[in-house]
Amino acid sequence: MQSSGKTLINPPGTEQIYRHFQFSQAVRAGNRVWVSGQVGIDENGKAAEGIEAQARAAFVNLQHVLAEAGAGMQDVVELVTYHTAMKEIGRFLKVKAEFIPSDFPAWTAVGVTELVMPELLCEIRATAVIGSGGSRPEGT
Q: Name one GO cellular component term (predicted).
């Protein structure tokens, strides 16, 4: 969906989220992409078990939205993550390193008491600049 120089990014399967919760998975304007908070749920809305599984699912969801916008993880310039248990940050970092092993973006980790679903343990929001990470994702 495009209007006023911005493109709303809503990959197939996320239309219900767009309509019900009234937000896009991401918005692209020029070569910049702002990705809404991604969480560790599957396509059926079921939360993964435990912080590592949820973090991994959230990063996979982030990759999917970035790809739909024409970007990749290498283009992420900022991450903001929200955690219901900061004591789990080490386990989160382990998973984060699987997806971002080097050339780290700016990152802010915020402890919160609750996310949109009570079973959620973390949420990942990102900003990307397409092409800033060097190589481009396939198909772009």
A: cytosol
Rounded average pLDDT over 72-95: 97
Which tokens is 122 given? 């973390």
DSSP letter (8 states) at residue 113? S
Distance, in Å, from the CA atom of 37 to the CA atom of 60, rounded to the nearest integer, reads 12
Strands 32-39 and 6-9: unpaired
Gap between the terminal Cα atoms of the chain = 18
Q: What does the alpha-carbon distance between residue 20 and residue 48 come to, in Å, rounded to a whole number?
A: 22
Q: Which two tokens stand for residue 117?
A: 């679903």
| Six token digits for residue 24 | 């896009």
What domains are defined for the chain?
A: 2-129 (3.30.1330.40)
Condensed to tens digits (0 to 9), the pLDDT of residues 19-70 reads 888 899 999 999 999 999 999 988 778 898 999 999 999 999 999 999 999 9
DSSP helix/strand/coil, 92 = helix
